[in-house]
Write a structure and sequence with these properties.
6-stranded mixed sheet
Length: 734
C-alpha cells in the first residue's frame, strides 16, 4: 500500500527519513517522528480506491512536495468517543467507597421510599383521586438476618426495574422532577410545586448503598396493575428480573408499591438487622420524612418538621420538645425564631436561643473546630449534624434546624461541595438571628437581660473575634451594662434594682455637653466601682458611667471604640479640662475647703517624685478632679493589658519578664491638695522632726500603693503588709 502511495504522489520518503535521523539528537525529534506518523496514517486512511484528488487526500502543494493541510489534518486527528465503564468495578466503588458510614443505607432507602410515595400522591392528585394512606414500613429480623423496607407508592414495571435499578446513576426521582418541571410551565399548580420540592433523590446511586451490608438484595415491585416482578442481584455486576406473585408473603410483591429485602452480611447484622440500631439511625437521619415511617410496627418519626410551619402554628410545648430533640438539651429555649426565605437561597429554619449556656453545667459540651449547633437538612433529610462551617464560632450557642434546598451536596449526600454558598447561608442566618435578638430586647427587655447574663459572653466574643468587622455593628446594640445611675424600684420588685442598659440607651441619656461614653472596669463588682477615685469627677459633673464587671469587657470596648459618633473612653484614661463650675462645687462639698497653695503643692509633688517614690512614677502633680480621695494613678496600663502582661511574663525568660514588669512602673500620680492626708504629709515635712518625716515618707508610699490598688495596677499586695504594720504600730502606740 505504501508503494502505491509513493507512486501516486511521486513522493520520496527517503529525504524525510534522513531528516528524522539527522534530528534524532535534537530537541524536536519527538515532534518530527509524530508528524511523520500522523501524515502517513492520514494518507493511508484518505487515499482509498477512487480517491484521486489531492484535496480529498487533505494535501496541498508546497515547494518541498505535498503536505497535510492544517485544517484537514486537524479534522482527521479529532475523533469523538464515549467513555466506557467497567460495570462491576463501578458498582464496587459505589457500594464500598462512596459512603463514610454504612448506616446511611437506611437513610438512602427511606429517601427512595419517600420519593415513591410523593410520586404516587402527585399522580393521584393530578387525576383527582385519593391515594389512600401512604407510609413506609420497615421490618428487621436479627435471627434471619434480613432488613425489609416496603412502601405503597408507585411501584415499578419490568422496564422500570431494568431502567432504574439496572442503570447506575440513573435517577428516576430526578427524571420525575424534570418532567413535572416541564409540566409546571403550562400548569403552575400547588400540587406540582409541592411534589417537586419534596422529592429527595437526584443522583441515582442511593439504592446501591444496600450492598454495603448485604450479600444479596431482592426487590419486589408492582405498579398496581397486577403484574409484579422480582429484581435480584448479589452486587457482582449482574442482576436478574423474573415475574412474581402479588401478596404479603415472602417472595411476593405488594399490590401497589415496592418491597426491598436485604439479606444482611453476617458481620453487619448488629447494624442492619438489630432493631435498636436501625431505630437509632432512623431517628438520626429520617426523623422528619414527610410520611409515617414504622419499624416493626412502631412509628419512628412522630415529631413534626416544625420548621416547615409558621410560628403561629407551633405551640411552646411542641417547640420545647423539638428543641430538646434536635439540640440534645435539657433546658427550655428562651427565644425561638421561625425564619424562611426564597431568595437568594431557599431556606426554611427554626432557630433557638438556649436559656442556659450550652457549654456549661451538667449537660454542657464543647463543639469541635468549626462545628455549629445547627443540623443541616435538605428536603427534610439530615445532611450534617452540627454542620461545619455554617456559623461563625461566636454563634455556636444557636440550636435548631436549617433546611436548604439549594445546598450543593456531593454524591453521597454526606458533605457539602460549595463552601462559598455555605458561608453565604451562614451569613444570612447569623444576621437574621442577631436582628431577632435585637427585636426581643426591645419587646421583652427584662427577659432579654436575664438571657444576656448567661449568654452575653458569646456576643462579646463575636466583637473581639476574627470576624468582628462583619458583625460588630449588629452585636454592639445587644450588649448590656450596669451604670452609675441610682437604683430604681420597678413594679413587682421588693427593692430597687440597678438596671442594665444598652449603649443606645446610654447615648440617649447623655446630658448636653458630654462628648464621650465613659466606662469603668471593676472586676470586683459594684462596690468596687462605687469607691473608685476615678468616678468622683464624673459624679460631680452628673455624667453616667458604665460599669464593666468582666475582664473581657475592656477588650470589647477597645474593639468597639465608638458608638453613634461617641468615643468609648475609660475613666482611668480620660482627660478633663478644669471647669470653674466644678471648682465651686468642690468648695461647697468640702468641709475643709482650704487647699495647699501653688508653691507648697509644687514642692510637695517634687518631694513625692524624687524622695518618696524615686523611679516609681513618671511624674506627680496636683489634681483638679479628686473630691474625696487623696490620690489617683494616671497613665497606667489598663486592667486587661495588665493581665495579658502577667500571662506573657509567666511564659517569658527572666530578661523579657523584667522588661514587661517595667511597664507597670510607667504611671503618674495625681494628689488632691485639699485632702487631709496630703496636707498632713506637707505639715510633717515642714515640722523638722525626723521621725515625723520618716512616717510621712511611709504614708506617701502607702498613698501611692493605695492608688495602684484602686487602679488595679498592684500585682502583689503582700509587699505593702510590712509598711502597714509599722504605721499601725505607730498609731496604736500614740
Amino acid at each position: 500500500m505504501i508503494t502505491v502511495v509513493r507512486r501516486r504522489l511521486g513522493l520520496a520518503l527517503e529525504p524525510l527519513s534522513r531528516a528524522v535521523l539527522v534530528s534524532r539528537n535534537a530537541s524536536r525529534t519527538f515532534v518530527a517522528r509524530s508528524s511523520a506518523a500522523v501524515a502517513d496514517s492520514a494518507l493511508l486512511r484518505r487515499l482509498a480506491p477512487g480517491s484521486s484528488s489531492y484535496l480529498r487526500a487533505g494535501l496541498v502543494r508546497s515547494p518541498r512536495g505535498f503536505a497535510a493541510s492544517p485544517a484537514s489534518g486537524q479534522a482527521a486527528a479529532e475523533e469523538t468517543h464515549a467513555f466506557q465503564a467497567e460495570t462491576r468495578r463501578l458498582l464496587d466503588i459505589v457500594t464500598n467507597s462512596l459512603y463514610t458510614d454504612k448506616e446511611v443505607f437506611v437513610r438512602e432507602l427511606v429517601s427512595n421510599a419517600s420519593d415513591a410515595l410523593e410520586k404516587c400522591r402527585h399522580d393521584f392528585l393530578a387525576k383527582g383521586e385519593d391515594p389512600g394512606e401512604l407510609a413506609v414500613a420497615i421490618k428487621v429480623d436479627s435471627d434471619k438476618g434480613t432488613f425489609v423496607i416496603e412502601d405503597n407508592g408507585l411501584g415499578m414495571s419490568k422496564d422500570d426495574l431494568a431502567s432504574n435499578l439496572g442503570t447506575i446513576a440513573r435517577s428516576g426521582s430526578k427524571a420525575f422532577v424534570d418532567e413535572i418541571a416541564g409540566d409546571a410551565k403550562d400548569d403552575q399548580t400547588a400540587a406540582t410545586s409541592t411534589a417537586a420540592s419534596n422529592i429527595i433523590g437526584k443522583f441515582g446511586v442511593g439504592f446501591y448503598s444496600a450492598f454495603m451490608v448485604s450479600d444479596k438484595v431482592d426487590v419486589y415491585s408492582c405498579a398496581g396493575d397486577g403484574l409484579a416482578h422480582r429484581w435480584s442481584s448479589a452486587g457482582d455486576g449482574s442482576y436478574t428480573i423474573a415475574p412474581c406473585e402479588v401478596g404479603d408473603g415472602d417472595g411476593q410483591a405488594p399490590a401497589r408499591g415496592t418491597r426491598i429485602v436485604l439479606h444482611v452480611k453476617e458481620q453487619d447484622k448488629t447494624l442492619a438487622a438489630a432493631e435498636w440500631a436501625v431505630e437509632s439511625v432512623l431517628k438520626k437521619y429520617s426523623a422528619f420524612v414527610g410520611f409515617p415511617v414504622t419499624l416493626n410496627g412502631k412509628r419512628t418519626n412522630s415529631i413534626d418538621a416544625l420548621w416547615t410551619k409558621s410560628a403561629g402554628e407551633v405551640s411552646d410545648e411542641d417547640a420545647a420538645a423539638f428543641y430538646r430533640f434536635v439540640g440534645g438539651a435539657i433546658d427550655t429555649p428562651a427565644f425561638r425564631l421561625h425564619f424562611s426565605a426564597d431568595a437568594p437561597l431557599t431556606i426554611r429554619s427554626l432557630l433557638f436561643a438556649p436559656s442556659d449556656n450550652p457549654e456549661r453545667g451538667f449537660a454542657g459540651r464543647q463543639l469541635e473546630g468549626d462545628q455549629s449547633g445547627l443540623s443541616l437538612y435538605s428536603r427534610r433529610v439530615l445532611i450534617q449534624q452540627n454542620a461545619r462551617g455554617l456559623l461563625p464560632q461566636f454563634m455556636r450557642w444557636v440550636r435548631g434546624v436549617v433546611d436548604c434546598e439549594d445546598v450543593p451536596l456531593n454524591i453521597s449526600r454526606e458533605s457539602l461541595q460549595d463552601s462559598d454558598l455555605i458561608r453565604r447561608l451562614g451569613d444570612i442566618i447569623t444576621k437574621r438571628m442577631l436582628k431577632f435578638l435585637g427585636e426581643r430586647a426591645k419587646k421583652e427587655p427584662e427577659k432579654y437581660v436575664k438571657w444576656y447574663g448567661k449568654m452575653g459572653v458569646f456576643l462579646k466574643e463575636g466583637i473581639c473575634g476574627d470576624q468582628s468587622y462583619m458583625y460588630k455593628d449588629a452585636l454592639t446594640p445587644l450588649l448590656r451594662f450596669e451604670t452609675s445611675a441610682e437604683a430604681v424600684k420597678s413594679d413587682g420588685d421588693d427593692k430597687p434594682r440597678h438596671a442594665q442598659i444598652s449603649l443606645d440607651q446610654y447615648v440617649e441619656r447623655m446630658p448636653e455637653g458630654q462628648k464621650d461614653i465613659y466606662y469603668l472596669v471593676a472586676p470586683g463588682g459594684r462596690k468596687q466601682a462605687e469607691i473608685s477615685p476615678y468616678l468622683e469627677h464624673l459624679k460631680r459633673k452628673g455624667h453616667e458611667v458604665l460599669y464593666l464587671y468582666a475582664h473581657v469587657d475592656e477588650f470589647v470596648m477597645q474593639h468597639i471604640r465608638s458608638h453613634k459618633g461617641k468615643k468609648l473612653v475609660s475613666v482611668e484614661m480620660a482627660e478633663f479640662d478644669e471647669d470653674p463650675k466644678d471648682a465651686k462645687k468642690d468648695d461647697a462639698t468640702t468641709d475643709d475647703g482650704e487647699s495647699l497653695g501653688g508653691e507648697a503643692m509644687e514642692k510637695l509633688c517634687q518631694w513625692f517624685a524624687e524622695e518618696a517614690l524615686p523611679g516609681r512614677v513618671t511624674g506627680v502633680k496636683a489634681s483638679s478632679r479628686l473630691v474625696g480621695s487623696p490620690a489617683l494613678l494616671t497613665g497606667h496600663e489598663p486592667e486587661a493589658m495588665r493581665r495579658y502582661r502577667m500571662m506573657l511574663s509567666m511564659m517569658s525568660d527572666d530578661a523579657t519578664a523584667k522588661k514587661l514588669d517595667e511597664l507597670q512602673m510607667s504611671a503618674g500620680l495625681e494628689l488632691n491638695p485639699k485632702h487631709a492626708i496630703v496636707k498632713g504629709i506637707q505639715a510633717a515635712l515642714e515640722s523638722g522632726d525626723e521621725e515625723r518625716k520618716a512616717v510621712a515618707k511611709m504614708v506617701a508610699e502607702q498613698v501611692f500603693d493605695n492608688a495602684r490598688i484602686a487602679a488595679g495596677a498592684l500585682d502583689d499586695p503582700r509587699e505593702i503588709i510590712g509598711r502597714l504594720n509599722t504605721l499601725l504600730e505607730k498609731v496604736v502606740v500614740k
